[in-house]
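Hey Z.,

So I finally got round to the arginine thing we talked about over coffee. Here's the setup:
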Amino acid sequence: MTIHQLINERVQAALAAAGAPDAPAVVQPASKPEFGDYQANGVMGAAKALKTNPRALAEKVVAALDLAGIADKVEIAGPGFINIHLAPEYLARRSEAALKDDKLGIAPVKPLRVMVEYSSPNLAKEMHVGHLRSSIIGDALARVMEYVGHDVVRANHVGDWGTQFGMLVAYLVETSHAGDADLQLSDLETFYRNAKIRFDESEDFANTARDYVVKLQGGDEEVLKLWRRFVDVSLKHCEDVYEKLNVGLKREHVRGESSYNDDLPVIVKELRESGLLTEDDGAQVVFLEEFRTQEDKPMGVIVQKKDGGFIYTTTDIGAVRYRHRELKLDRVIYVVDARQSQHFAQMFTICRKAGFAPEGMSLEHVGFGVMMGDDGKPFKTRSGGTVKLIELLHEAEERAYALVSEKNPDLPEAQKHEIANAVGIGAVKYADLSKNRMSDYIFNWDTMLAFEGNTAPYLQYAYTRVQSVFRKAEDYDANAKIVITEPAEKQLAAALAQFEDTLNAVVEGCYPHYLSQYLYHIATLFSRFYEACPILKSEGEVRASRLQLAALTAKTLRTGLDLLGIKVLESM
Ligand code: ARG
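And the result:
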C-alpha cells in the first residue's frame, strides 16, 4: 500500500470508531509543509452529516487514529483539519526499500488487458502536427500502464481505406510508367497534391481512380498490391517520425481501417437484427434517444450511406466488436482529438446497445485540445499550410543543437547531436505532456527550450546535476542507511514516496501531466535539499544517507522521464 492509501485506511477506521463510518476520509498530501505531510479533511463533512461539532469529532477521530510507526505527530487545525506528520524513520525505511526495488517499490496491480489506441494518422498524406498530441500522449499512457503492470496492447488505427486511395493508386500507376514513382513517393504531401491535380484535370484519370476504388473494395489482387505498396511507403514515413519522437509504435501495432472492411456489411446486418436500424432517405441510420438535435429529436447516426458505402463510424463499430471478441480487452482507450468527442460518445452508445461491447469493457475517449501557434490560432506554417511533423522535429533538434553548441562549444560533435536529440525532442514532448491534455496550448520554441521553469531541459539538466554528484562520490554505498533529520530531506523523501500514487492517478484519469508536475516538484525539492544539505561536503553517515536520497531522486527522475518517453543524459 502507498503511504496515502495506508493513511486513508487508518483515518477511515478512526472515523468509523468515532461514529462516522460512512464519511470519506479525504486524505491528501499537505498543501504546505506547516500542515505536515498529509492532511485528512473529512471531519468537517462528517460533522455536518452527524450535526455535531467538528472540532470535537476531530478529537475523537485523532484519539482513535492508529498511526504508530507511521506518523510521529498528529494535530488538529482550524475547524477540524487533521495534519499528519510522517515519522522520519518510517520515511527512511520506505525510501531504502524503493531504492532496492526495480520498480521503485510500487505494488503490482491486478493486470487488466488495456488497449491504448493512438497516433492513427491517415496514410493518404504525411503525418502533420495534428498527429503530434495523440502520438505522444498515447505513448506516455501506454508506457505508464505497462510499467504499473497492465497487459497493454498498443494500436495504431491508421486511415488506410476509402475513396482517396483509388486516386492515389491511379497516380502510383501513372508515375510508375514514367519511372519516377519512388522519387514521387519520397514526399507524400506532394504526391497527394499531384494526384489531386490529375484527378481534377483529367476525366479519364478520375474514372480510373473510381474504378480502382471499386476494385479495392472488391478485393482485386492487382489493385490491392499497388495499394499495399502505397501503404507500405506511407507507414515507413510514419515510422521515421515515431523513431525520431521515441514513440513505441511498430508495424505490428498497425491495424488499419481496411482490416474491418469485410465486417462492415455484417455490422449493419447485426444492427438491423437488433432492431436498431432505420432507413432514412435511403441511408441506414441508428437513431439515439440519448443525443438530441436542435429540434430536440433523437439524433441519427449514419452507418451506411445511400450509395451503399460505409463510413468512419461503421469502421469504428467494427473495431470495437473485434476488440471485444478477439482481443478480450477490459479497457480501450482512444487518444483522439477532443473535437471527435461526439463521434465517440455516439459510437460507444451504439456498441453497447448492439452488444458489441459488454458492460465490463470500458470504452474511453481520451481527448485533447488544439496546439496553437504564437498567434493563438491553430499551428500552421508562415504561409498558412500544414506543418509536416518530421520537419517540426528536425527544427526542434536544430534549435537544441544551436543551444548546446553555444553553451558547450568544445563538446565532441557526436555528443552535441545526442544532446540535441534528447533536448529538442524532449522539449517538444514535455511542453505537451506537462499541460492538462484537455486544454489548448501555445507552441513556443523559446519557452519549451528554456533551461528554467517547468520544461524538459530543466528536468534533464536536474538529472545530470544529480548524476554529477555520483561522479565525485567514489565512496557511494548502495546499501547505506538513510537517516532523515533536516526538513529539506524529509520533504524530498515524502515526495519521492508519492511516485506510485502519481502513476495510479495517471492510469486512472489518463492524464500524463500529473506525472510531469510530479517530476518538476521532485526536481524543485531536490534543488532545495541540495542547497540546504551539503552532500559532498558532509561526512560519514550523513553523507552516505544524503547520497542515498540523491540516488533515489535520480532513479525517480530517470524512470519518470522515461515513462513520458523523454530521454535523459548523463551529462549535458
Ligand atoms: N484517422 C483519424 C484521423 O486522422 C483518427 C482515427 C482515430 N481513431 C479512431 N478509432 N477513430 O482523424
